[in-house]
Amino acid sequence: MPIQSVERTAAPDDILAILKRDGVVIIRELIDRAAMQDIVGKVEPRLAERKTGGGKFFGYRKRSIGALFSHGPELSQLPLNPTVQSLADQVLGPSCKAYQLHATGSIQVWGGGQNQPLHRELDAYTPFIKLNPNDPEYILFFMFAGSDFTAENGATRLVPGSHRWPADRCAAEEEVCQAAMPQGSAVVWLGKTLHGLGTNTTDTPRTGLFFSFSVGWLRQEENQYLAVPVDIAKELPERLQQLLGYRAHDTFLGWVDGRDSELLTRETPLEMFEDVEGVTY
Ligand SMILES: O=C(O)CCC(=O)C(=O)O
Ligand SMILES: [Fe+2]
Questions:
Q1: Atom of ligand 1 nearest to the CA of 198
Q2: What are the tens digits of pLDDT across the range 109-158?
Q3: Same domain, 52 and 137
Q4: Do 189 and 265 share a domain, yes or no?
Q5: Ordered alpha helix ranges (H), the chain
Q6: Are 114 and 27 found together in one domain?
Q7: Domain range spanning residue 231?
Q8: 272 CB under 6 A from ligand 1?
Q9: Ligand 1 in contact with 113 (CB < 6 A)?
């Protein structure tokens, strides 16, 4: 079964239905090539400073950076894209009061490596969260094509339907599909979906820009407060500050000095707890 792809004009409910059914969906040209080229121009100099490697888990030939949103305000349009936000609202909204950025970065795949072992983003919580297809979604992953993604240059390998599999089922090679898509497109997958980067057999790198979201009550995979410290976060759109974690989850998670952590990025901080009956801090 190939990965189903839709145009960016597709109805959000139709995109969501495919994502829930298959555990993965491609949204073609979600942002324009020109906008993506501008974004790639911000991260390529940083990638060029990195060594190619990554060991077996990354197929030996990746170059990567994290802290995606510290590399310029142009990057903000990716997580704030209305289709991205609408999918995250619907997938993660039912299992939290607010979702957050979980891990962010850019991964280049250079020629001559190997496939990454198939894995699930949920694996980071093993053995504390056991894979259960009936559990709510905790993680949602977006991979944008910074260059064209092709079968030859290491487009992400994904296993449609594997979000419903038991933990011990392995994917046969014919069950693996590649997210071939033009620059500016995004492939979206659930935290329970098996995937991994592919092998690049060409002589130009494949460049991906990724971020994941998780429910706001879970430990973020990448420490967003160190990745995007307050002084950089202050310059970003307010919604992105919140997604980075500069906001309490509901009332009692993520406070600082007895107040909502939004106070760190705002001139006039919001007070909290004062109106919560029966609580004294
Ligand atoms: O770069 C890719 O295509 C996927 C990378 C990935 O899944 C990971 O690093 O966890
Ligand atoms: Fe992954």
A1: 3
A2: 999 999 999 999 999 999 999 999 999 999 999 999 999 999 999 999 99
A3: yes
A4: no
A5: 12-22, 33-48, 77-80, 82-92, 224-227, 230-233, 238-244
A6: yes
A7: 5-246
A8: no
A9: no
User: Do 140 and 117 belong together in one domain?
Assistant: yes
CATH code at position 20: 2.60.120.620
Nearest CA to ligand 1 atom 7: 196
**Percent above pLDDT 90 for the chain:** 85
Domain count within the chain = 2
Ligand 1 atom 2 nearest Cα? 197
Find out whether the beta carbon of 156 lies less than 6 Å from any atom of ligand 1: yes
Domain match, 236 and 260 both? no
Query: To 5 degrees, how large is the angle CA 73–CA 262–CA 213?
Result: 60
pLDDT tens figures, 236-246 = 999 999 999 99
Residue 60 has pLDDT above 90, yes or no: no
d(CA 43, CA 210): 12
Q: Does 80 lie in the same domain as 115?
A: yes
CA distance 276 to 242: 22
Q: At what angle do helices 82-92 and 12-22 cross, to 10 degrees?
A: 50
57: tokens are 């888990």
> Could you tell me if the CB of 102 is within 6 A of ligand 1?
no
Q: Which of 65, 102, 106, 107 to mutate to test the pocket of ligand 1 (most atoms within 8 A of CB)?
A: 107
Is the domain of 145 the same as that of 266? no
The tokens describing 9, both together, are 């004009």
For residues 165 and 235, membership in a common domain is answered with yes
Q: Which ligand is nearest to the CA of 107?
A: 1
Closest ligand 1 atom to residue 58 Cα is 9
Return the HEC string of 176-234. CEECCECCCCEEEEECCCCEECCCECCCCCEEEEEEEEEECCCCCCCCHHHHCCHHHHC
The pTM of the full predicted model, rounded to 2 decimals, is 0.94
Could you give the count of Cα atoms lying within 13 Å of 44 in the half-sphere of its Cβ?
11
